[in-house]
What does this fold into?
Amino acid sequence: MSPSAKDRLLLGVLRGCAALAGLLVVVIAAFLILESVPAFRNVGWTRFFSDPAWHPAPRAEAGQFQMLPMLAGTLAVMAGAVLLATPLGVLSAVFCRYYAPPALGNAYRRLIELLSGIPSVVYGFWGLVTLVPLINQVRPPGASLLAGVLVVAIMILPTVALMADGALAQVPQEYLRAAAALGLSRWTTVRAVVLPAAKYGLFTGVMLETGRAIGETMATLMVCGNIVRFPQSVFDPVRTLTANIALEMAYALGDHRSALFASGLLLLVLIVMLAGAAEWIGGEPARD
Amino acid sequence: MIDATTAFPPARGSSGERLATAAVWSSALLVVGVSVWMLGGLFWQGAGRINWAFLTTEPANAGRSGGIAPMLASTVLVLGVALAVSVPLGLGAAVLLAEFTDSGSVFGRLVRRSLDVLAGVPSVVFALFGNALFCQYLGLGYSILAGGLTLACMVLPVLIRATEEGFRAVPEDYRRAAAALGMSRTGTLWHVLLPAAAPGLAVGLVLGIGRVLGETAALLFTSGYVDRMPESLLDSGRTLSVHIYDLSMNVTGGDANACATAVVLVVLLLVVNAAAGWIARHWMRGKRISE
It folds into this structure.
């Protein structure tokens, strides 16, 4: 084979690989849509929000398919976890860069990197055997929205802390020198110079952690109690959409199975909307 | 770099300043405290049960006693399948994106955008997809093969991103020198770029391994729960992470062994992540690649 023919063959193979990788997300969406068609046809999407309860059955007429309590569970866990993890994560990054002596800051960054590598099932296990009994002493049953919020917050904290740390590292040195030359105090520099300069990176970090909080399955499955009900307080058990899929997929048949795919499609839509919003507000996604 | 400890005037003065300092230090302390509480607790309770027998025997009594040998084997097999599929595909895509597309090209932008979305897809959605495509349409059933293929889709974005960075870190001079020598693009890729970009590929590989080892939700209904020693890739197999989940949620009295399994898994992941960090710092020898 001549060199140029070889080059063309190589380019073709590489194009194929890239196209396949790029199409994967389309294929995933296509499969979710395909599998949820029976649910949309037999149950109809209005019943997902108007049925009296979630009592799924393989045949649409025999079951009830109300998804709102689980959507509420997902959003409640997400909101609580993001509200807790964001300030902690950003302050962690500020600590690393501007407060800690360099050696301590590096050690702290290592710890955060270590936390980011711990799998969600381990966080869930720890929450189940440690946090849930503690919360149970305050207000039974223990497995609750609060437990879910705490565990997911700890889980997504490394994401936002590492993103914020990266964003702070990008703040130009001249800004800091100028702030130092003006005799600005440490916190004033951070609040008025560093954080505004890093706001797009911080925003991307918040979007990433929000996505993780929506998609988190194992931790919420293990500590939230999995009861399909609108939570009245943080001590009430909830079931998230992701946990619902993980719980029922193993035995679901017919329209029930199809409804689970529809809820997966809903999750995918939420994630894509989040990415879209991030891009719309924050400009080009940060590629670092 | 401005030295954080000396560049600023000492924090007396306003109470706001003192409050902020207290808030920053206490959030760092809180994070350290929770980490020690969690990891310390796990190791304290789990490490004592780990010995050679635990790693090499089959589980007994639904996992309450006995070891984790079949789970280790299943984990390795799932990992093998996932990497065997995703590494060639990811490498090809990364080479194309880094070396053969202009940064402005529509195709490149589309592929990158779609990989960014793919990276954010929740694992349980991968599980639904894997179950529909691999278990049902392709008729693989609950099997290690189906689980591995599902995870291959999942690690693809991580792998491509790191490998692409590896290629981008190769100095432009290498390409010009190869072109000046009249090397074909295939030859350049094979003999010049690939060796020079190997650290990026290695980092991607290690990050991918980390994701596969820790993944649970995507495997629950693709590779399944069966806790026997797998005999082929078409057998269902229970990985370490699924074992932790099953023992803690579905088996009363399984917590002790779940904890020990969690320690094994965390130690494995620590080794893997340390390897990624080590490669990124030492093997790169001055070439700048972001992790």
About this structure: Residues 12 and 244 of chain A are 43 Å apart (CA to CA). Chain A touches chain B through 99 residues (CB under 8 Å). Strands of chain A lie at 54-55, 64-65. The longest strand of chain A covers residues 54-55.
